[in-house]
Amino acid sequence: MSLTEIIARRIAAEGPMPLSEYMALCLGHPRHGYYMTRDPLGARGDFTTAPEISQMFGEVIGLALAQAWLDRGSPDPFCLAELGPGRGTLMADILRATARVPGFHDAMRLVLVETSPQLRAAQARTLAGRRADWADSPDGLPDLPLFLVANEFFDALPIRQYHRTAEGWRERVIALDQGRLVAALSPPVPLGIDAPPGTVLETSPPGEAIAEALGARLVRHGGLALIIDYGEWEGTGDTFQAVSGHGFADPLERPGEADLTAHVQFGALAMAAADGAAAAGGRVAAGFREQGAWLAALGIGQRAAALARARPDAADAIADALERLTHPDQMGTLFKVLALTRAGDPAPPGLAEAAP
Ligand code: SAH
Questions:
Q1: Distance (Å, rounded) from C-alpha 93 to C-alpha 60?
Q2: Which of 239, 154, 235 is nearest to 193 (CA)?
Q3: How many angstroms is it from 86 CA to the middle of ligand 1?
Q4: String of DSSP letters for 121-147
Q5: Which of the residues in the chain have pLDDT under 50?
Q6: Among 151, 153, 157, 324, which is best to mutate for testing ligand 1, by the most ligand atoms less than 8 A from CB?
Q7: Which end of the chain is more exposed for a tag (fewer CB within 10 A), N or C?
Q8: Residue 148 and residue 273: Cα distance in Å, rounded?
């Protein structure tokens, strides 16, 4: 049975499903889910991420994590973790860049949080020879000081979407119309939020649950979590999208064949982390900055210059990659970093000057 049939049968039996359920099935269905069946990254895939553009991205992030580790007294042991590591490229670059930080690799326990068997295999290939553990969710991380990175992970988590209509708030659902999947709105639901008609609100319950867990872990064990993605501090309306073959696609057309994403609301994640921290009896500090300014503060310009000196033949490609990662017209301002750390701990590298 195809995923379209599976979804259609479920709707026929149980009624229209919230967008979050549709997204979860399209991305994570064990047999047909988008991430379960393929490696979506790279020129021949559906989208290209920062670590796939250039090694410089992971190198400066690796050094930032190592600096934060040193600033916190070089805890031994500690957990180096990544959420949604894709092909393992970012982690490979982090490990190469940190190899000469005294004690860092010896104290490190590497954990990759990944649900896709395909991508776990790709990560194992990329990190060949490294000792690493895999976990299905952040709940599987060890109780250790945590130095964590997540790039383009939170945008892939299911969202719920609410539309303010003349009748009140109605939730975006996927319904059946003469056997076809269609977008529809639920009957009015009480949200207890006032907003003008036409307003669209999005929430990511799984994203917020993960941020909450990270907040609690940071209070208990210390460390730093770097969340990098496209999005804004607050919601900006309807950001649900399907991406296929490096372009936008119809999210209902071929379930499981396109990447479904939404912009990340960093403020909601920071708030959830604060809730998790409070439940653990502490507080977190949140730094927030545009990717271009942050990478520049971490020294990506100097790294590009050094690479170009070592490889004059590749100077144009290096300059190109630097521009893609940092220029405002490219990934420099759409992408942001949210850095979470225990309140009172040293400011994360590249974010000292950014207001919490
Ligand atoms: N960070 C990588 C890949 C981004 S794609 C990069 O920057 O290139 C999103 C990644 O998150 C994939 O590895 C995907 O399999 C993983 N992923 C998506 N949903 C997940 C979930 N609910 N739990 C764990 N991993 C998930």
A1: 9
A2: 235
A3: 6
A4: HHHHHHTTT---EEESSGGGS-SS-EE
A5: 354-356
A6: 153
A7: N
A8: 14
19 lines ligand 1 (CB under 6 A): no
Q: In order of start, what are the domains of the chain with their CATH numbers?
A: 33-156+204-342 (3.40.50.12710)
Q: HSE of 187 in the Cβ direction (CA atoms, 13 Å)?
A: 1
Q: Which pLDDT tens digit goes with each residue over 71-93?
A: 999 999 999 999 999 999 999 99
Rounded to whole angstroms, the Cα distance separating 47 from 274 reads 32
Q: In this structure, are residues 205 and 213 in contact, taking their beta carbons and an 8 Å threshold?
A: no
Pairwise CA distance, residues 298 & 350, whole Å: 5
Starting at the earlier edge strand, list the strands of the sheet with 259-261: 247-249, 241-244, 259-261
How far is residue 93's CA from residue 260's CA, in Å, rounded to a whole number? Answer: 27
Is the link from the previous residue into 77 a cis peptide, with omega within 30 of 0? Answer: yes
Count Cβ atoms within 10 A of the Cβ of residue 246 and give its class: 0-12 exposed, 13-18 middle, 19 or more buried.
exposed
CA torsion sign for 5, 46, 265, 165 is negative
Predicted confidence at residue 150, as pLDDT, reads 98
Predicted local distance difference test score (pLDDT) of residue 354: 46
Residue with tokens 């209070």, as numbered in its chain: 219
Binding site membership of 52 for ligand 1 (Cβ less than 6 Å): yes
- Shortest-distance Cα residue to atom 16 of ligand 1: 84
Summarised one tens digit per residue, pLDDT across range 185-237 is: 999 999 999 999 999 999 999 999 999 999 999 999 999 999 999 999 999 99
∠ CA 288-40-311, rounded to 5°: 70
Q: Which tokens is 310 given?
A: 């070592």
Residue 355 is predicted with a pLDDT of 46
Per DSSP, the three-state class of 295 is helix
Is the pTM higher than 0.85? The answer reads: yes
Q: Tokens in use for 219? A: 């209070």
Q: Could you give the CA distance from residue 156 to residue 167 in angstroms, rounded to a whole number?
A: 31
